[in-house]
Specification:
With 499 residues, this protein is of the alpha/beta class. The protein has three domains: 24-91, Elongation Factor Tu (Ef-tu), domain 3, CATH 2.40.30.20; 96-367, Rossmann fold (3-Layer(aba) Sandwich), CATH 3.40.50.300; 374-495, Up-down Bundle (Lysin). 37% of the residues lie in helices and 18% in strands. It has helices at residues 6-15, 148-153, 172-181, 199-211, 229-248, 260-273, 287-295, 326-334, 343-347, 370-373, 379-392, 401-416, 427-439, 450-464, 466-475, 480-495, and strands spanning 25-33, 36-40, 49-53, 58-64, 68-73, 85-92, 94-96, 105-106, 123-125, 163-166, 189-197, 218-224, 252-258, 309-317, 337-341, 360-361. Strands 8-12-11-13-14-10-15-16 form an eight-stranded mixed sheet, sandwiched between helices. A hairpin with a 4-residue loop joins strand 3 (49-53) and strand 4 (58-64). The chain is elongated, with a radius of gyration of 26 Å. The N and C termini lie far apart (53 Å). The protein binds adenosine-5'-triphosphate and magnesium ion. Adenosine-5'-triphosphate binds at residues 166, 168-174, 317, 351-352, 419-421.
Length: 499
């Protein structure tokens, strides 16, 4: 990726805002080190203001004191020296927004990272107020991820904030990426924000999105592990501003923050270097506010304010499954539910590794489509009964027929929830699989062969009911007659007769 220097890029930007005579406000660098600069005597200093240093390097004022400013450098350059002059630009950090961003990869201040010029003349500040209470409406439309376990048991609604939480390498990114891929033909715009990740990992995600044809309605905002903490700190806010542009125009947007643990660490680094007092786990006291003001910007807007929605899927990485440490508990309490992924399940081959007992969606159920609601009522109870019984009967040998049947059905259901990555189901396919579970279509299929059998079953169902599938995928509705018809077809499939 060829990149224009941050300083050169910001110089162009700030130069664009000098219509009349300019009065420069100047200060002097007092101390500099570790990417943090202390400036004295800067009159009229503003929180978040961009400061220009003599060498053309930029910094962001984050600590205003009685006679000076503590600023973090955006460039990782060490060309700032003590005693040099600092200029207040009067501008805060901004990001370009607009239709031109679709299909593009940018960094948090709007530099294109995909070797093409970016043509847009509208900029939004990265920090913007969240919509007021009266400008919001309740979540009422589903945002289907195409992942059966999630859409059936932990449904997400447009405008909701649903946390994806789990240890490293448990498929967190895979779930978020699948959710983006599933928005291909729904008109939902997606923003994927990568914070503090290896560039190679992010390149892999972009490639997956491209290959799946999902990049055309997506924007990627990337702040890598090698970028300065200030740039990493800005990334989720910038991504949210990009999303808000579309939401204000009545569009539905999905934003993924991958991940907020690294974002919190970048913020901690920055604040400790600014000599702010450390609190729990050395995070500053306002780290809760940092994430709450970000996630409060996800909302379902009322018709008067555009009627669009911003759905947020923040990701949090836990250590050894500890969801009770500081940052996870913060974000759990801010969001409307969480999808909890477990290493043990992942390594046992149950992928996506969703722990259905610990995962919840607090507002999504009311937004679930009619078709899905008609087939997913008892799944959670079935699964938890199965799990309880499975532990209980692990060492027992002679079980009665009812228990054996329940264990087998539970095992089948667990296996039906297994789904390869980048293979989202359509709503019709999800409903068809759950109806097959209800009809016990796969009762004679060995577990090893189940995956192939499901693929075959879905191919048959899609071929037999194209009109029903198209209608259901478009409207989300299913009447009782159709339900009975599909259920009968699932039974006929088992018997091997024509659907
Ligand atoms: P990290 O903590 O490194 O960010 P992560 O939790 O985001 O990891 P992923 O990168 O999504 O995890 O996935 C880890 C690995 O598991 C990847 O190699 C991915 O291909 C694989 N994987 C994820 N989901 C599935 C799935 N449903 N089926 C098969 N493989 C999967
Ligand atoms: Mg990941």
């Amino acid at each position: 990726m060829t990149e224009k220097k941050i300083s050169a890029f910001l110089k162009d930007r700030t130069a664009a805002f000098t219509p009349g005579p300019v009065i420069f406000r100047k200060g002097t660098v007092e101390r500099v080190g570790d990417g943090v600069v202390h400036v004295k005597d800067l009159p009229g200093r503003k929180y978040g203001e961009l400061l220009e240093f003599g060498s053309g390097v930029y910094g962001m004022a984050l600590e205003l004191t009685e006679n000076g400013v503590g600023a973090v450098l955006l460039d990782a350059e060490d060309s700032v020296c003590a005693g040099e002059t600092v200029k207040g630009t009067g501008r805060v950090a901004e990001v370009p927004v607009g239709e031109a961003l679709l299909g593009r990869v940018i960094d948090p201040i709007g530099r294109p990272l995909d070797e093409r010029e970016l043509e847009t003349d509208l900029y939004y500040p990265v920090e913007r107020p969240s919509p007021a209470i009266m400008d919001r409406r309740p979540v009422d439309t589903p945002l289907e991820t195409g992942i059966l376990a999630i859409d059936s048991m932990i449904p997400i609604g447009r405008g909701q904030r649903e946390l994806i939480i789990g240890d490293r390498q448990t498929g967190k990114t895979a779930i978020a990426v699948d959710a983006i891929i599933n928005q291909r033909n729904t008109g939902v715009i997606c923003v994927y924000c990568a914070v503090g990740q290896k560039s190679s990992t992010v390149a892999g995600v972009i490639e997956t999105l491209r290959a799946a044809g999902a990049m055309d309605n997506s924007v990627v905002v990337h702040a890598g592990a090698s970028d300065s903490p200030a740039i990493q700190y800005l990334a989720p806010f910038a991504a949210c501003s990009v999303a808000e542009y579309f939401a204000e125009r009545g569009r539905d947007v999905l934003v993924v923050y991958d991940d907020l643990t690294k974002h919190a660490v970048a913020y901690r680094t920055m604040t400790l270097l600014l000599l702010r007092p450390p609190g729990r786990e050395a995070y500053p006291g306002d780290v809760f506010y940092l994430h709450s003001r970000l996630l409060e910007r996800a909302a379902c807007r009322s018709a008067e304010t555009g009627g669009g929605t911003v759905t947020a899927l923040p990701i949090i990485e836990t250590m050894a499954g500890n969801i009770a440490s500081y940052i996870p508990t913060n974000v759990i309490s801010i969001t409307d539910g969480q999808i909890y992924l477990e290493s043990e399940l992942f390594h046992a081959g149950i992928r996506p590794a969703v722990n259905t007992g610990l995962s919840v969606s607090r507002v999504g159920r009311s937004a679930q489509s009619e078709a899905m609601r008609a087939v997913s009522g008892t799944l959670r109870i079935d699964l938890s009964q199965y799990r309880e019984m499975a532990v209980f009967t692990r060492f027992g040998s002679d079980l009665d027929a009812a228990t054996v049947k329940m264990l087998r059905r539970g095992e089948t259901l667990t296996n039906l929830f297994k789904q390869g990555k980048s293979h989202p189901y359509t709503l019709f396919e999800e409903v068809a699989v759950l109806l097959a579970y209800e009809a016990d279509t796969f009762r004679d299929v060995p577990m090893k062969a189940l995956g192939a059998k499901v693929t075959d079953y879905l191919a048959h169902m899609n071929a037999a009911f194209p009109a029903v599938a198209a209608h259901m995928n478009a409207t989300g509705s299913m009447d009782d007659g159709t339900r009975a018809e599909l259920l009968a077809a699932a039974e006929r499939y088992r018997e091997g007769t024509e659907l």
